[in-house]
Amino acid sequence: MARAGFVGRGVIYLLVGALALRIAFSDEGQRQADRGGAVAELADRPFGNVLLWLLGLALAGMALWRLSEAAFGQAGPDGHKASKRATSGARFLFYCFVSYSVLAYAAGDEGSGSGSSDKHTKDVTAKILDWPGGQWIVAAAGAGVVVAGIWIAVRAIMRKFHKRLRLSEMPRRVRQGVDVLGVVGGTARGVVFGVAGGFAVAAAVRHKPGEAKGMDNTLRSFTETGAGPWLLALIAVGLVAFGLFSWANARWRKV
Question: What are the residue boundaries of the DUF1206 domain, all occurrences included (predicted)?
């Protein structure tokens, strides 16, 4: 189930990266570059509904594997630490939501899996900002996402993923390729998280929920920098690399 889940995660990141590349090269009218856009894109392929069911079930497998880690500990000598089990529990809840949204879309609820991450992010931010102390909650959540993005990128650059892979079973060239995919993909993923968190902090400070951005608008924001579409293209290639790295995890991850 874990290996199927990594395949499913890889499919989503590959599709999001491909959609982001379209946006980078002026294909503005296409779907949003986020999980919803990836699901809708997959649905349009031949046997799309079958592929969606397989994707949803694969992600459900990932959720169940994370639940087993929360209950019995992760692989490795320190896998039974409370912090690691709590992290696995949080990932279980996340993949439950993702799996449900994909399966609901496959079952005919087109407003489920393909919903815009930008609209959802703004709606949730607006509700929280109306709570007592809502600005502090949004700011803290945004800061947490920024820290998570930095943590993801730094761990990728330091190749912390080595300890989770069966490196000795890989041919030398494959190991080198997986190394590049892990560093490039993890860094790009961390950058996207960090920038999205920064927008959430800005929304809290200015009390403007519209400042918060989902993945699609976060990716589009890279085109507004001095590097223009090329920075988005670079990030998009990084997301594709992370998708391929997920597939490598499906083969060589220690589970």
Answer: 4-72, 89-159, 184-253
CA distance linking residue 128 with residue 198, whole number of Å:
17
Q: Taking a C-beta distance cutoff of 8 angstroms, is the pair 52, 102 a contact?
A: yes
Does residue 79 belong to any structural domain of this protein?
Answer: no
The 10s digit of each residue's pLDDT in 70-79 is: 999 888 778 7
Total number of domains constituting the chain: 1
Q: What is the pLDDT of residue 27?
A: 57
- Does 134 map to a domain? yes
Question: What proportion of the chain, given as a percentage, has pLDDT over 70?
Answer: 95
Predicted confidence (pLDDT) per residue in 186-203, tens digit:
999 999 999 999 999 999
Q: Which domain holds residue 164?
A: 117-241
